[in-house]
Amino acid sequence: MPNNAAIDRFMLDSPQKAAIASPRPLVTLAVVALWAGVWNWHARHTVLVKAAGAAAVCVVLQFAAGITLATFALPPPAQVAHLTLASLLLGAVTTVGLVAWRWPQPPA
């Protein structure tokens, strides 16, 4: 059975696809808002700025990996990249949250 036929056989109907796809714009907007907030209010805190920037880069790379997965019938290297980037994104956002919560503001 070719890859496309196997994928089509297990595809979900459109309400399920919509439910799965709905968090994507929310996550993207949340990371962009996080980056903008850190950039505007914590620009002197280099760890926060770097972690927020890493989260934004991970979102862009996640888009690229997702498009590759959708276009080329789930190639294994793209699957690994997609999952790795998701883990890195979670780590970057967690770092921003912990640093903002626990570390004091650097001196002016």
Please provide a written account of the structure.
There is one protein chain. This protein is mainly α and 108 residues long. The protein contains five helices and no strands. The chain has helices spanning 3-9, 14-21, 23-41, 46-71, 76-102. The termini are far apart. The mean pLDDT is 79.
Summarize this, please?
With 108 residues, this protein is mostly helical.
Write the layout of secondary structure elements.
Blueprint: H1 3-9, H2 14-21, H3 23-41, H4 46-71, H5 76-102
Helix pairs in contact: 3-4, 4-5
Q: What would you call the structural class?
A: mainly alpha
Helical content (DSSP H or I, runs of 4+): over 70%
Alpha-carbon Rg, integer:
18 Å
Task: Sum up the overall morphology in one term.
Answer: elongated
Number of strands: 0
What is the chain-wise order of helices and strands?
A: HHHHH
Note the beta-strand portion: under 5%
Largest sheet: none
Distance between the termini: 64 Å
The parts where pLDDT drops under 50 for at least 5 residues are none
> How many helix segments?
5
Average pLDDT across residues? 79
Quickly count the domains. Answer: 1
Question: What descriptive keywords fit this protein?
Answer:
108 residues, mainly alpha, 81% helix, elongated
